[in-house]
Amino acid sequence: MSFTFQIDRTAGSARAGVFLTPHGAVETPAFMPVGTLATVKALDPDDLVQMGASMILANAYHLHLRPGDDVVRELGGLHRFMRWERPILTDSGGFQVFSLAQLRTLNDDGVEFQSHIDGSRRFFTPEFVIQIERNLGADVIMQFDHVIPGQSDEASARDASERSIRWLARCLAELNRLESIQPLEGAPPMVTFSADDPGNRQALFPIVQGGIHASLRRDAAKKISEMHDWPGFGIGGLSVGEDKDAMYEMIEVVDEALPKAHPRYLMGVGFPEDLIESIRRGIDLFDCVAPTRMGRNGAVFTRDGRLNIKNTEFRTDPRPLDADCDCAACTRFSRAYIRHLFVSDEILGLRLLSLHNVHFLLSLTRQARQAIRSGNLEQWAREWLARYRATSAVAV
Ligand SMILES: [Zn+2]
Asked: pTM surpassing 0.85?
């Protein structure tokens, strides 16, 4: 087995574990920085290594459209193409197909849509998406799923969830077929092409859908778990406009319904308070574009809530962004300097805030892991959230 998950310690539903992949270990809970187009915006892979990032994300839909998954494959797979030797996870593009693209037709076979780049017509089936993800060669690949708006009614949510489960079976069959005929580009050295070599395998994660309907989430988790012994599970369709209580309730339902022995990845969730609340409810992996996207708008995570560096109050502020942070921005530069960079449209400003925000979330999940291991997660979480929320009123 090339993918294993070992749980070292639990605290209620929370777990501190190690997820092993052919490109190395991911200590969980973990935040995965998002590199949609095979780059975590404004950051060099060396920066990410220095911050202690283990697994990062890329996106199959975007990389298929540009530069083309065939191009990535020809250049040795995603790890070699982007010079990232550690684990990578690719999202299938279900979310992008159903949100960014102009939809044309959807049926059980697949989806026809127009590219958001040039309007060209495309047809994605579960099989085709797995072929893209095989060409890219990430360690973990997500199934192609039917994504619907967060507050969809129960009938639409059931329809999409059941279609996603039918598509999951086709994703699995296609991956099994490809693993027996197509070598994995970018596999670590020593891996030989053989259906028996575990290094030639990719971990396919199913995605539990079901909107904000507990019974649908429970059904989906049950049907998916019965289909196959999956190396991990994605939980999709949350943090898309529903209120926080509904999101936490759905996570609790799924925590109960899924097998405990495998990592759970809550897709697209990554604000500090959401990370802590979800870790408490049994989530192991997270991703979110917020730290880099917000960083480019001047928003900064700090232990005392969020601030916006563009505000006039920071014009002569000599302090670092966050006094408790040991990132490459906070250990060298003042708020006043970084504000000056932003106001002057200097690209170093964007880079420093992206560095800090990504570092902040990586560090937060490491602290949570430490708290689980030391047996004081509840107290740590309470204190962390109280301080973060106490001053958030002055934030952006
Ligand atoms: Zn910092």
From this structure: yes
